[in-house]
Amino acid sequence: MSPQQKVEAADPYFPASGDPRYRVNRYELTLDYRPGPNRLTGTARLGAIAGRAPLTEFQLNLADFRIGRIRVDGRAPHYTHRGGRLRIRPPKPIRAGAAFTVEVHWSGNPKPVGSPWGGIGWEELEDGALVASQPVGAPSWYPCNDRPADKASYQISVTTPSAYSVVAGGRLLTRTTKASTTTWVYEQPAPTSSYLVGLVIGRFQTVLLGDPGDDGVPQYGHLPARLLPQFSRDFARQPAMMELFQELFGPYPFGEYAVVVTEEELDVPVEAQGLSLFGSNHVDGARGSERLVAHELAHQWFGNSVSVADWRHIWLNEGFAKYAEWLWSERSGGPTAAQLAAAAHRKLSSLPQDLRLSDPGRKRMFDDRLYERGGLVLHAVRCAVGEETFHRMLRGWAAAHRGGVVRTGAFTAHAARCAGRPLDDLFTAWVEEPALPPLPAPAAAVPMRPPHPPSNAGSV
């Protein structure tokens, strides 16, 4: 089976999510949201391409909304809408490889959709709303081909009362106020998985982090005004993180980066394409969550730009972001990656060793052990190949798969090519076998760069 055919297979963890018989290359979403009654009205226009067989019918994922109308290439199809699946049968079959458009009008009261981890997706707040869709929450607010391998560009227009700000991943094209409402239009041209489409509606103060200069990345913070003093300290070093990660991983893959802090507390921060979402509990004025600031920023390269073909390979998202935490600590004067790896190894050695990193199973895809062990895989590779090869490997991985999707096998092959020798034993032990291997040899095998303080380009 070719790699392309594999990409077109259903996700084994969520076979009811997405439809591998076609792919979407463009979403245009026009939304009207009223926070008081939590009322959402939307129109979605999708530009799509049929796969290798004619499409007599296809499916979108959409939660329990009222459907207004549906059009396929301008004509009314037959459709059914049950159990989060919108099954559409066009008036005539769509030829293999042919481009087609789908238009869907829907309305209702958005709410989280069920998952093994509770409700995910659209969440109504006390004063606004937010979206946290990983892994299958996107249908809670718009119709989509909900599979991580199906990446598309997006334009999102949101109209809401003018007292509220709207933040989405991408560049703000226009903001137009008429009477008591304002329409915000964002464009995200980079290929984006449906679960990574971020949206937040609330009352925020917007600040610029640092000075991007002529060649820098614009970085914005959107937060409740009362939290600005704490935010100014907690996120002050994010521009230095951006500088370091571009050195280590290559150019930032998107046009801009925004962080949003909500009034509500969140269990964990959430990454989206070009956007990360933090709770008020992650802002304490003492940089108590700085490793999470680094983690979410690193996801823009690993997870967002370079995305998993299916959820079995989630360690490629979380292990890389975890190791980025350790690299930031090492380079900003904190504990070295070797010290943090040793601490993670001690922690894992005291826990059950029944998780296989390359295919953890749906119930364990967000297990803390996957994050820690994923970071240890990167450290083991670093110890095995040396500093220069390791960083060349990271930059090459991000560059070669920018905007694409990957599997574990692609990474192990890439690492071996960079090393100039097979690394089968290393990856078998760390990725395929559940038993925890010994801690990789420390600094003698890897000439760690001496820590240096980050630049001062971190003012808010």
Automatic annotation (TrEMBL):
It comes from the Bacteria. Its EC number is 3.4.11.2. Its main location: cytoplasm. It is found in: Cytoplasm. It catalyses: Release of an N-terminal amino acid, Xaa-|-Yaa- from a peptide, amide or arylamide. Xaa is preferably Ala, but may be most amino acids including Pro (slow action). When a terminal hydrophobic residue is followed by a prolyl residue, the two may be released as an intact Xaa-Pro dipeptide. Residues 240-430 form the Peptidase M1 membrane alanine aminopeptidase domain. Pfam families: Peptidase_M1 (PF01433), Peptidase_M1_N (PF17900). Residues 134-196 form the Aminopeptidase N-like N-terminal domain. Keywords: Cytoplasm, Hydrolase, Metal-binding, Metalloprotease, Protease, Zinc. It is an enzyme of class 3 (hydrolase). Its cofactor is Zn(2+). Belongs to the peptidase M1 family. PANTHER family: LEUKOTRIENE A-4 HYDROLASE. This is Aminopeptidase N.
